[in-house]
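Worked problem 6 (solution included).
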Amino acid sequence: MVYGFIMKYDSLIQKKRRLDESRPFSPEVLHNLERWFLIELTYTSNALEGNTLTRLETAVVVEKGLTVGGKTLAEHLEATNHAAALRKVLEIARSPVSTLTEHILLDLHSMILRGIDDASAGRYREIPVRISGSRVVLPNPAKVAILMSDFFRDPLAMAGSHPVEIAAEAHYRLVTIHPFIDGNGRTARLLMNLILLQNGYPPALIRTRDRVPYLKSLEQAQLGGSKEDYLKIISRSVERSFAIYFQALGGEGPKEVIESKLLRIGDLAKKTGETLATLRHWMKQGLLEPADTTEAGYQLFIPQTAERVGRIREWQSDRRTLAEIRQELEKEVR
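Solution. The predicted structure is:
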C-alpha cells in the first residue's frame, strides 16, 4: 500500500518466525495466553472508550460473574460482551475459514451491544453521528451501506502488504466509515485482531496510556495526513504482544514487558557516555527507537540499545553519514 512512506516490518517478521518455531504451543501455555489476553484486551479496549472498570474489576466481572459496586450496568455488560465477542474471534481464527464476511462483522458488533442497545446491535446506522472532540466529518448515513459493500468487496490483502498492515488498514477503514451508532472502535479492534490471529500473529494490545496518541494518529490520517504514526502504534502494539508470548513460552506468566528491565533515556546516556541531545537526535534520524513509554511519557529502551549506540559511534568514527549508518542498521533486521 502506498502511504507516501515505507513501513518496515522486518522485526515483526523475525519474531513471527521465532514464534512459529515454538508451535504447536502446549495446552497449558495456550490456555494461559488466551485467558490473559481475554481480560487484558477486554479491559484496554473498553477503557479506550471510557469504561471505568479497572483491570482487576474486569477480571472479576468476566471470570467470576460478579458485580462491582459503583459501576453502571452498561459497564458490566461492556466487559462481558467484549469477552464473549473475543471468544468468538478466537473460535473463528482457529477455523479453516479465513474469509472475512459481513455476517462475521455484524455478529461481532451485535455481541458488543447486546443488552446495551439491542435495537442498534448488528445494524448499520441510519442517522448522522460525530466523534466527540474531533474535526473528522463522518460519512452520511445514506452512504454507509455502499461504503460497507465496498469494504467487503475490495480485497484488503493487496499484493505485497504485510499482515499487520492489512489488519491495521481494516481497522482504519472501519472506524473511518463509522458504520454503527456505537461500538465502532471496539468492533474495529476485534476485526483487526481477528485478521492478525488468522495470519499467525498475536493480537495488537493498545494500552490505555496510548489512548491519546492512538486517537490522534487516527484523526491525522482521517484528515488527509500521513498514516505513519498510526501504523507505528499498531506495530508496537503487536511487538508488545510478541514479548508476552515469548515470556509465556519461557515459563513466565504472561505480562507486559517489565519496565524495570528497560532503560530511560537518561540511564542510556549514562551507560553509553552520550549526551541526551545526541541520543534524541539519533532517535529523530531513525537510528534509535524506544521499546516502550511509561504513563508519565518517559521513553524506555531495551538494554541492548547501549550496544547499538556503541556501533553508531564506531561507524561515525569511520566517517559514515547518519544515512549510511541507518542503512547498516536496517540490514541487521533483514
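Discussion: Residues 256-260 have pLDDT under 50 and may be disordered.
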